[in-house]
């Protein structure tokens, strides 16, 4: 679903160059739930921004669902995002004057759907997320956890192929964080939605099947269900299993 090739991002700050991403390559499968971890400043948000087409890379390619996002114009990107991408933000980014239903229905406005249809879809999702009693509340009348559930519903309402989330639990307490994380994993699994989530919390990332670790703008670890996807690690494990096969196929006496 997501293919990244030799991605590089350099920021220029007052004559100085900051290499935020250095030669990043990765594949994320359809329906995969992927956490990007790393300490502050390691390049997590920069990577997410390049994947979502919010910023243009200095070098390299980003493809989503076969489309070259890194080369799209702003107009092409806007349409592409409307039809394929959902976003979840750390600070929820809900519109304060709109109710929960109106906030969730909002992205569908740009698809030209009727108000009644938009609100029906929004209500169904809010109910499914246990917010049936909060439909007509405004963000200021809800807890952080409830607001983030509205934020998740809004990201999901258009049935996107990919959802990007930058520290979605960053403002929540630990119990709510776990609830929200479980909800995200469930949504991804049940709807075959690809999730890319940035977090600085390695413990939280462990709940995800795929964990990519960044350090100084490079991938230093890439694990899927406990197996490394880094090329050098794959070569080593291939070699190991070949050696084991050879040993196993040799006659008994030869093995001593
Ligand atoms: P993280 O999200 O892992 O904390 P970032 O991706 O925000 O890290 O930042 C990676 C590096 O790039 C840092 O050194 C940061 O200061 C730098 N950086 C990020 N965004 C900008 C920008 N817009 N202009 C200049 N430097 C930036
Ligand atoms: Mg960040």
Summarize the structure in words:
There is one protein chain. The protein is of the alpha/beta class and 256 residues long. The protein has a single domain (2-250), classed as P-loop containing nucleotide triphosphate hydrolases (Rossmann fold). It is built from 8 helices and 11 strands. The protein has helices spanning 44-51, 74-84, 100-109, 115-128, 144-156, 174-191, 202-205, 231-249, and strands at 2-13, 16-28, 33-37, 59-64, 67-68, 85-88, 162-166, 194-198, 210-215, 218-224, 227-228. The protein has a 7-stranded mixed beta sheet. It has a 4-stranded antiparallel beta sheet with strand order 2-1-4-5. Strand 4 and strand 5 form a beta hairpin. The site of magnesium ion has 2 residues, from helix 1.
Summary, kept brief:
This protein is of the alpha/beta class and 256 residues long. It is 38% helix and 26% strand.
Q: How is the main sheet built? A: 7 strands, mixed
C-alpha Rg (nearest Å) = 21 Å
Low-confidence region ranges: none
Q: Specify the CATH homologous superfamily.
A: P-loop containing nucleotide triphosphate hydrolases
Bound molecules: adenosine-5'-diphosphate, magnesium ion
Apparent shape? globular
The secondary structure category is alpha/beta
Order of adjacent strands in the largest pleated sheet: 6-7-8-3-9-10-11
- Kindly provide the name of the CATH class: Alpha Beta
Helix coverage percent: 25-40%
Helix count, DSSP H or I runs of 4 or more residues: 8
Task: Give the domain tally.
Answer: 1
Order of helices and strands: EEEHEEHEHHHEHEHEEEH
Q: How many E-type strands?
A: 11
């Amino acid at each position: 679903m997501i293919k990244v090739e030799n991605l590089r991002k350099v920021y220029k700050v007052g004559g100085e160059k900051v290499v935020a991403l250095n030669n990043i390559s990765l594949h994320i499968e359809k329906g995969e739930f992927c956490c990007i971890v790393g300490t502050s400043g390691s390049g997590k948000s920069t990577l997410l921004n390049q994947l979502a087409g919010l910023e243009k890379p200095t070098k390299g390619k980003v493809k989503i669902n076969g489309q070259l996002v890194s080369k799209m114009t702003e107009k092409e990107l806007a349409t592409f995002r409307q039809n394929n991408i959902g976003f979840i933000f750390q600070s929820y980014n809900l519109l304060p004057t709109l109710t929960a239903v109106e906030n969730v229905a909002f992205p569908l406005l740009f698809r030209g759907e009727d108000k009644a249809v938009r609100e029906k879809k929004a209500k169904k999702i809010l109910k499914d997320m246990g917010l049936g009693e909060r439909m007509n509340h405004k963000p200021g009348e809800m807890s952080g956890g409830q607001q983030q559930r509205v934020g998740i519903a809004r990201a999901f309402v258009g049935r996107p192929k990919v959802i990007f989330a930058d520290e979605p639990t960053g403002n929540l307490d630990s119990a709510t964080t776990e609830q929200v994380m479980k909800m995200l994993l469930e949504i991804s699994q049940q709807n075959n939605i690809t999730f890319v989530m940035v977090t600085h919390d390695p413990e939280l990332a462990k709940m995800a099947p795929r964990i990519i670790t960044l350090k100084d703008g490079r991938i230093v670890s890439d694990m899927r269900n406990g197996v490394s996807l880094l090329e050098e690690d794959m070569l080593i494990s291939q070699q190991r299993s070949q050696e084991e096969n050879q040993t196993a196929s040799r006659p008994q006496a030869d093995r001593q």
